[in-house]
Give the backbone structure.
Amino acid sequence: MSATEQLTEMYELLYERFGPQSWWPGESQFEIIIGAILTQNTNWANVEKAIANLKKAKALSAQPLYQMNHDELAALIKPAGYFNIKAKRLKSFLTWFFGEYNGLLENLEQLSTTRLREELLNIKGVGPETADSILLYAFDRPIFVVDVYTARVMTRHNLIEAGCDYEQLQELFQSNLVEDVKMFNEFHALLVRVGKEFCRPKARCNGCPLEKLPHTIE
Ligand code: SF4
């Protein structure tokens, strides 16, 4: 079976079992961006609390967040953990957003995917997974987001070497699947789901939706 066939079958099996995952939770494009920065190194439930605090303070839009001082912002996002670091990251994003693009999302919409990705990666504290989550989930760009769950499933299914880097793993999907925002959106979310429920550090292959596909567990 080719990599394309294996990935396609994986997607179908996961979708059949779990159904649509409705990612990314967020009421606006801006909220998705902020959520993508806040979710680094924490679980989503904690991000939701931080986002609820921002909403309550009427600070979940560009201008109020840009004008808020560091300490106030850090206090509001405290539930998301690493709040001082994350407040700095949000401020770095907003400084770039207002400095270069007048704080207008429509100005970012004008950029090519390559350019927007490069610019996001230049913001301190925005790594590939965060940048790609913003591109895919906030801007509907056909970029495949990968993470530790993706790496674990793909390695165990012998689709990539253990220890591959982010770009190699991303390339596995982008070179073997047609560009499809909706499918990329679902596939990433489904891989996170199977990674959390079955493909944990100690694999639970029994009953996993991907159990019938060839895999190797060390
Ligand atoms: S738990 Fe087993 S069957 Fe499921 S994805 Fe991981 S290696 Fe594959």
The pocket of iron/sulfur cluster is lined by residues 153, 156-157, 194, 198-199, 203-205, 208, 210-211, 215, 217 (CB under 6 Å). The longest helix spans residues 83-101. The CA atoms of residues 112 and 146 lie 21 Å apart.
